[in-house]
Write a sequence for this structure.
């Protein structure tokens, strides 16, 4: 159970494939246009339930409850050994 | 009409409310619109713009000479060649990019007019810029981003930008790939009554004019002359337009204005599949080319960003060359910055070889870097998505398939875009065959295309279009 007032992430489909613009590539046209928004949960709920949230600007949005305390996971990625070669290339040249 | 078409049909009405500009009053002739009149009627005196920016932690960034990179250029250039390269360190603005200059004026204007908040549709640094400026003015702020593919895999660079927006207190709405972002954007404008802090209003351009002015003023102060060439990373055209206009305010001397974009030829910007196969989400040809050819495709009826009016040369560079240059900037100059902002720098490295050693090139921006938008994060993401990364000749790079890092700095070579062809495309896209153009239209095209009227006739002849005098 996720408590009311928890900070959560919800998602919903904005346009189904049939409702999408006709001027988009085939691969995109096959998929729905999806949206993700964060806010505070208005009622107790469980994951995957359809819920309502209040966003930072005070708007009410509804969608599927996807995550509680949504976290950033982006990083500097895996090490790229080629960057060491650039070091050798430009440092030798420069010296 | 379905719900998408219903909203789209009302876009001009919604925009008029959300920007406060009646664009229709500037239309004239068959294709023209009074650009300078729009800029004059919907702007602020430049000294007020500078005051707003100074007051908001924006502008006055240092111009730094890249002595070690210049030295590297000279080792790869013919004797006597290798211009001095300077960089305007715009990453030092609040929110980490030159976009703060644009946001400062848009947000100030929104506040002054009494709008209850601001919205911007952007996956770029402009989001953080608007969020940061809105925070200073205590204005609620919504940023709408195209961020994920249909599988929910996000571009690390855009996820980082969302984090930055949220750090400044903004509400961030993230969408999967597709131009219907504009549909969501219009609905939000209507629901909230917020100001559309578009990159393409006169305010969004005016804010960059100070950057062009500072480039000239800094050069006069530091080296006693204006630069020979200024290189601007080009996507929507606003950066180049505003910089060139600012330069023209500050000097009558000729400064060559060069647009620079990352070559993403072959990748479709609205393709779900291609979305995560590119390593640059801005500053690339996927925006640079269409916006130059059809500037009014933007999120306002008439864009204030019109690069063809000001551009002298347009060059492209590969993803591999920009990543190489980004690493080099950190290694040789001790300046670690984001890759997209170094697009112009990579081009400048190549262009400097054409100029003499006493000549000067200014690269007019840098952007912040960090998790997600660091070149290592981008290269790692590309490798995970099956992009072949190796050393070689960058001219063999195929966007979406390979990233080729130059095997030697000599292989960093910007590629010239034929502006004549771009101008022909502009005419093809904006002038229909059934129109017979009048003198008004010819004059407009001369301004729009940055050419003499005589050249407009030649272009029209080549496109088999008719006119009457």
């Amino acid at each position: 159970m996720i408590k009311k007032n928890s900070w959560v992430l919800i998602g919903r489909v904005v346009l189904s494939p049939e409702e999408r613009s006709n001027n988009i590539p085939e691969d995109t046209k096959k998929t729905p246009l999806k949206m993700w928004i964060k806010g505070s949960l208005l009622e107790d709920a469980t994951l995957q339930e359809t819920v309502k949230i209040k966003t930072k600007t005070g708007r009410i949005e509804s969608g599927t409850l996807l995550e509680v305390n949504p976290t950033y996971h982006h990083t500097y990625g895996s090490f790229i050994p080629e960057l060491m070669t650039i070091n050798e290339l430009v440092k030798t040249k420069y010296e | 009409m379905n719900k998408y078409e219903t909203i789209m049909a009302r876009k001009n009405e919604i925009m008029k409310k959300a920007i406060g500009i009646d664009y229709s009053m500037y239309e004239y002739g068959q294709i023209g619109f009074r650009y300078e009149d729009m800029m004059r009627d919907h702007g602020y005196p430049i000294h007020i713009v500078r005051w707003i920016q100074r007051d908001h932690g924006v502008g006055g960034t240092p111009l730094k000479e890249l002595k070690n990179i210049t030295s590297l250029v000279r080792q790869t250039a013919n004797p006597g060649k290798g211009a001095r390269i300077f960089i305007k360190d715009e990453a030092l603005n609040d929110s980490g990019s030159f976009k703060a200059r644009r946001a400062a004026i848009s947000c100030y204007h929104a506040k002054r007019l009494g709008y209850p908040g601001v919205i911007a549709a952007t996956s770029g640094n402009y989001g953080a810029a608007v969020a940061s400026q809105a925070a200073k003015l205590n204005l609620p702020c919504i940023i709408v981003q195209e961020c994920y593919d249909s599988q929910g895999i996000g571009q690390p660079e855009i996820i980082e930008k969302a984090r930055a927006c949220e750090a400044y207190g903004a509400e961030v709405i993230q969408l999967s790939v597709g131009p219907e972002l504009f549909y969501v954007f219009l609905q939000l404008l209507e629901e909230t009554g917020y100001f559309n802090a578009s990159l393409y209003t006169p305010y969004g351009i005016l804010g960059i004019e100070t950057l062009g002015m500072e480039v000239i003023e800094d050069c006069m102060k530091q080296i006693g002359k204006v630069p020979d060439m200024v290189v601007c990373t080009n996507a929507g055209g606003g950066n180049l337009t505003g910089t060139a206009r600012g330069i023209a305010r500050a000097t009558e001397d000729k400064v060559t204005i060069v647009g620079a974009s990352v070559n993403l030829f072959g990748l479709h910007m609205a393709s779900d599949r291609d979305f995560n196969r590119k390593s640059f989400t801005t500053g690339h040809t996927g925006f640079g080319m269409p916006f130059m050819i059809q500037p009014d495709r933007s999120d306002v009826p008439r864009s204030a960003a019109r690069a063809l009016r000001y551009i002298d040369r347009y060059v492209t560079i590969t993803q591999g060359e920009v990543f190489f240059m980004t690493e080099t900037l950190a290694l040789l100059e001790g300046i670690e910055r984001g890759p997209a902002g170094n697009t112009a720098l990579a081009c400048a490295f190549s262009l400097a070889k054409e100029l003499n050693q006493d000549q000067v090139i200014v690269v007019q921006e840098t952007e912040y870097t960090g998790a997600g938008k660091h070149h290592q994060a981008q290269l790692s993401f590309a490798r995970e998505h099956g992009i072949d990364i190796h050393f070689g000749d960058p001219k063999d790079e195929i966007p979406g398939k390979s990233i080729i890092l130059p095997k030697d700095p000599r292989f960093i070579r910007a590629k010239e875009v034929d502006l004549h062809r771009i101008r022909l495309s502009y005419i093809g896209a904006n002038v229909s065959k059934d129109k017979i153009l009048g003198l008004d239209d010819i004059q407009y095209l001369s301004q729009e295309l940055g050419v003499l009227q005589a050249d407009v006739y030649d272009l029209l002849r080549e496109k088999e279009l008719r006119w009457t005098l």
Q: What stands out?
A: The longest strand of chain A covers residues 7-15. Chain A has two helices and four strands.
